[in-house]
């Protein structure tokens, strides 16, 4: 893909979603880590409903390990895979207490060793909590990147991340991550993408296929 096409995509989604940001409610790095862990295979809206009560009850890693596992399970039972996630949370909190003084580590390679924390979660935490440029590839980012030709159809999540890091200026990584999520969540949806009114139809492989007739972009003068 040409650099001009990448810039066109970034500028367009920027105009569509200028205020895109993390939609998981949190007040610190620890709460963000818990929220992102809970968000796996679950909507941010559902996570926010659960964490509204959860974060009032549990303030520190010690709070989470001080209750029976069954109690924590009940506190997050509206979340998908809640039993596994409850175990991850307690194990994660135990490690934070034992190895990091109860604080969330800022290093990416340390974060990914924590229970329930994969590369995506670590990228979200370092970028949103610690200001380190990163692109977290969730289902929205992956879908949109492949449809727009920023990545190949068969690319793995890691390959998508690497390709985005290569074509997107580093200082725009975190913002682009949020904007791609908003674009995929509210516009370029999995089942019903709004191709008929999409300003990126000219560079979208999926959109051209759905609409049958490609549209030529008019360069701004």
Automatic annotation (TrEMBL):
EC top class, as a word: lyase
Name assigned to this protein: Endonuclease III
Entry-linked SMART domains: ENDO3c, FES
Stored CDD domains: ENDO3c (cd00056)
A Gene Ontology biological process term: base-excision repair, AP site formation
Reaction it catalyzes: 2'-deoxyribonucleotide-(2'-deoxyribose 5'-phosphate)-2'-deoxyribonucleotide-DNA = a 3'-end 2'-deoxyribonucleotide-(2,3-dehydro-2,3-deoxyribose 5'-phosphate)-DNA + a 5'-end 5'-phospho-2'-deoxyribonucleoside-DNA + H(+)
Entry-linked HAMAP family: Nth
Cofactor: [4Fe-4S] cluster
Keywords tagged on the record: 4Fe-4S, DNA damage, DNA repair, DNA-binding, Endonuclease, Glycosidase, Hydrolase, Iron, Iron-sulfur, Lyase, Metal-binding, Nuclease
A molecular function (GO) term: class I DNA-(apurinic or apyrimidinic site) endonuclease activity
Domain HhH-GPD: 38-186
Organism superkingdom: Bacteria
Family listed: Belongs to the Nth/MutY family.
Enzyme Commission number, as recorded: 4.2.99.18
Its job: DNA repair enzyme that has both DNA N-glycosylase activity and AP-lyase activity. The DNA N-glycosylase activity releases various damaged pyrimidines from DNA by cleaving the N-glycosidic bond, leaving an AP (apurinic/apyrimidinic) site. The AP-lyase activity cleaves the phosphodiester bond 3' to the AP site by a beta-elimination, leaving a 3'-terminal unsaturated sugar and a product with a terminal 5'-phosphate.
Record note on cofactor: Binds 1 [4Fe-4S] cluster.
Organism of provenance: Paenibacillus sabinae T27
Keyword Iron-sulfur: yes
Residue numbers binding [4Fe-4S] cluster: 188, 195, 198, 204
A Pfam short name: HHH
């Amino acid at each position: 893909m040409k650099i001009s096409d990448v810039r066109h995509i970034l500028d367009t989604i920027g105009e569509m979603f200028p205020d895109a940001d993390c939609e998981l409610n949190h007040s610190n790095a620890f709460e963000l880590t818990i929220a992102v862990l809970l968000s796996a295979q679950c909507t941010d809206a559902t996570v926010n409903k659960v964490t509204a009560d959860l974060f009032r009850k549990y303030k520190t890693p010690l709070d989470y390990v001080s209750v029976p596992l069954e109690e924590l399970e009940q506190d997050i039972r509206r979340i998908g895979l809640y039993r596994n996630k409850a175990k991850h949370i307690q194990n994660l909190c135990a490690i934070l207490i034992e190895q990091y003084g109860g604080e969330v580590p800022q290093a990416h390679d340390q974060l990914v060793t924590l229970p329930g924390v994969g590369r995506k979660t670590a990228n979200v935490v370092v970028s949103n909590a610690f200001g380190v440029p990163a692109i977290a590839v969730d289902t929205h980012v992956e879908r949109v990147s492949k449809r727009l030709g920023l990545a190949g159809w068969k690319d793995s999540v890691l390959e998508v991340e690497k390709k985005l890091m290569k074509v997107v200026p580093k200082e725009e990584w975190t913002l682009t991550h949020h904007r791609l999520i908003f674009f995929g969540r509210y516009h370029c949806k999995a089942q019903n993408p709004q191709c008929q009114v999409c300003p990126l139809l000219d560079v979208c492989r999926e959109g051209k296929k759905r609409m049958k007739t490609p549209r030529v972009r008019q360069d701004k003068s």
